[in-house]
Write a structure and sequence with these properties.
This protein is flat. It has two helices and 14 strands; from the N terminus they run H-E-E-E-E-E-E-E-E-E-H-E-E-E-E-E. The protein has about 270 residues and is mostly beta strands. The protein has a single domain, classed as monomeric porin ompg (Porin), CATH 2.40.160.40. It has helices at about 1-10, 170-175, and strands at about 20-25, 25-30, 35-45, 50-65, 65-80, 90-105, 115-125, 130-145, 150-165, 180-195, 200-210, 220-230, 235-245, 255-265.
Amino acid sequence: MKSKIAIAALLLLPLSGQYAMAEEATTEEKSSLTVSAELGMLFKTGNTKSGDIKVGLNLKHEKDQWLNMVAFNALAKKVETEDEDGNDNFESTDNKWDILGQTNYSFEEGGKNYLYGSAFYQQDKFKSFEYQTSASFGWGRHWWETETSSFFADVGPGVKYDVISAEAATETIAATNEYSETAAIVQAQALYTNQINDFVEFKQYFVAKQAVESEKNSYYRSETSLTTKLIESLQFKFSFLVEHDTEVEKGFENTNTETSVTLVYSF
C-alpha cells in the first residue's frame, strides 16, 4: 500500500505554477496548467439491472523547456445476479484503474529533441495480474508539428514489475511462492494527433514495453480516439483501447479491448 501511495505522489509532484506571456503588446496571465476531465455512465433497470461508469482526468503543465503530463483512468461495472437462494446481488464484472505520468525536458526552448522520464501503474481485478507497474527514461523527438497535426515518439530502457493475482496463481506459483516478476524492458511510445476540422480531432497513441528476456511478459497498449466539440469547453469522445500481455496465467486472455463513449470537459 505504501508503494502505491509513493508512486501516485511521484507522478503528481511536478504539476504546479503559472507563467506570464505577451500577446500583441498586451501582457496577460495565462495558466501553464491545462486540465480535462471525462465521464461516461450507463445504468439499466427493468428486466436487466446494471451500472457502468468510466472516468478520466488529464493534466498538462508546460513551462520553459519542461512538459509534465499525468493521465488517470478508471472503469467499473456491476451487474445484477441471483444467488442459490433467489436473492438479488450486484456483482462486479469490471474494476480497473491506471495512472501514467511523464516529464519531458527539451534540449532547447522550442526544440524538437527531448529527454523523458515516465512511470505507469495499473490495477485490474479481472486480469491475470493484481497490478502492473513500470518506469522508463530515454530520448524523444517531435518529428513534426503543424497547425493541424503533430507526431512525437520516444524510446528508452526501463524496468517493469508485475504481481500475479491470487485468483490467477497456478499450483506451480503457489508452490514456489513466486507471485511477482521483475523484467528489464525497452519502452517505445508514440502519439499522433490530427485536427480534422474546427470540431473534430483524431488521436492515436501506442506504447510497447518489450521485455529483454524472451520468457518475461511484454506489454502493448493502443488507444484510438475521435473527439467532437459540442461547445467551447465540452467535447464528445469515442475511444477504442487494446491491451496485450504476452505471458498470462491459464484461463485469462492475452488481449483485452475496451470501447467507450464519454463527455470531456476542458478547463
